[in-house]
Amino acid sequence: GDSVTQMEGPVTLSEEAFLTINCTYTATGYPSLFWYVQYPGEGLQLLLKATKADDKGSNKGFEATYRKETTSFHLEKGSVQVSDSAVYFCALSVYSGYSTLTFGKGTMLLVSP
Amino acid sequence: DAGVTQSPTHLIKTRGQQVTLRCSPISGHKSVSWYQQVLGQGPQFIFQYYEKEERGRGNFPDRFSARQFPNYSSELNVNALLLGDSALYLCASSPRTGGNTEAFFGQGTRLTVV
């Protein structure tokens, strides 16, 4: 079946540090890949997505590149802010008559001033 | 435009009771999906409805059921509640159910079973 593996957290960084959150996947078909973010007490917000190999998704300074050869979709940001503190979920979607999201367990990011 | 709205935001139920959670999708969205998020885990797919018909079901017992109404709103019902059903229940809407379709999530309903 489909699955997503993320690095365990929490990831603790100082403001303006470089961020990488690793994500690898296993899929039965050709997936679309997503990063969602969840702030405390809130639902999920789509951060970025990529739908085919070598695509780069980007938003709010975050980037991730769809690497089919390594089945990876690592999230990066050059300079994190305190407001980036949240839980980040990597997810995939494979269409088989309908599309659903398969999520990783999430990685908590804590950014200190 | 209003986003996905869910009600109630929180509720507490006793083991063995039944609960109904409600979701209103974004205007114009015809697909609604339900996910269960246990504390510390990623969301798990429960159901997807499109145009009032069930399109997919995750690995959940028959105690879980759902339906979609003509206005595309949806209800999730859980019978004979167990302590393990305590979770955040998320509703997501999409304009359609095809591949690469983005899902928009509501704030969730926090269910506590005591």
Largest sheet of chain B: 7 strands, mixed
Can you count the beta strands of chain A? 12
Number of H- or I-type helical stretches of chain A: 0
Computed over alpha carbons, the radius of gyration of chain B is 13 Å
Largest interface, counted by CB within 8 Å of the partner chain's CB: A-B, 25 and 29 residues
Q: Which descriptor suits the 3D outline of chain A?
A: globular
Low-confidence residue ranges of chain A:
none
Sheet with the most strands of chain A? 6 strands, mixed
Q: Topology as H/E string of chain A?
A: EEEEEEEEEEEE
Please tell me about this protein's structure:
- The complex is a heterodimer of chains A (113) and B (114).
- With 113 residues, chain A is an all-beta fold.
- Chain A is built from no helices and twelve strands.
- In chain A, the strands form three sheets. In chain A, strands 2, 5, 6, 10, 11 and 12 form a six-stranded mixed β-sheet that branches. A four-stranded antiparallel β-sheet of chain A has the order 3-9-8-7, with no helix packed on it.
- Chain A starts with a strand and ends with a strand.
- With 114 residues, chain B is mainly β.
- In chain B, the strands form two sheets. In chain B, strands 2, 4, 5, 6, 9, 10 and 11 form a seven-stranded mixed β-sheet that branches. A four-stranded antiparallel β-sheet of chain B has the order 1-3-8-7, with no helix packed on it.
- Chain B has no helices and eleven strands.
- Classes of the chains: A mainly beta (113), B mainly beta (114).
- Chains A and B meet through strand 6, strand 10 and strand 11 of A and strand 5, strand 9 and strand 10 of B.
